[in-house]
Design brief:
The chain has 167 residues and is mainly alpha-helical. The protein has one domain. Helices cover 79% and strands 0% of the residues. Helix 2 crosses helix 3, helix 3 crosses helix 5 and helix 4 packs antiparallel against helix 5.
Length: 167
């Protein structure tokens, strides 16, 4: 296996591990009941939250978890597809990779919520699929902006010096 193949494998392992994390969180272990048993004592101790205010915090913590989880999945899938597809610059942005990563993330979110409809302790909702898809879209926008900035910035003094020494 050459170094390019190893790099591709590493990117897909990272995306696959993140998928396993999402799948694990889709079980009864990460139900609202189970997460509240852990989070309420912590937030009550740290902030003195009463049970009513905790419900609001708990809702936003869980939705933030959705956003962060699917943002990261979209980012990791973009990275994996960019490494895999031929003709795509490893330093640049690709609409093809962005679209594939977005639609794969949305598919995973849909399947995750569909799976949760079969668990008595979970509730699968279209709202969560929408939130997860927004997270995937935001991830792709952030990648585009980051790579656009990074590729347009003037080289630093150190980078210029390194290029002149190597050439």
């Amino acid at each position: 296996m050459n170094s390019a193949q190893k790099q591709i494998l590493k990117t897909w392992i990272a995306a696959g591990l993140w998928l396993f994390l999402i799948a694990g969180e889709s079980t009864d272990l990460a139900s609202a009941y189970n997460t509240s048993r852990i989070l309420y004592p912590i937030l009550h101790f740290l902030m003195g939250l009463d049970p009513i205010r905790f419900l609001i915090w708990h809702f936003y913590i869980r939705k933030s978890g959705h956003f962060v989880g699917y943002f990261m999945l979209s980012l990791l899938l973009f990275r994996a597809w960019r490494a895999t597809l031929r003709g795509v610059s490893l330093s640049g942005w690709s609409i093809q990779c962005a679209c594939i990563a977005f639609f794969m993330t949305t598919l995973v979110a849909s399947l995750d919520e569909w799976h949760q409809t079969y668990l008595p302790s979970r509730t699968g909702t279209v709202h969560d699929v929408f939130l997860d898809s927004i997270a995937a879209l935001v991830a792709q926008i952030v990648i585009f902006l980051w790579l656009s900035f990074w590729n347009r910035r003037p080289p630093s003094v150190i980078e210029t010096e390194m290029r002149s020494q190597s050439g």
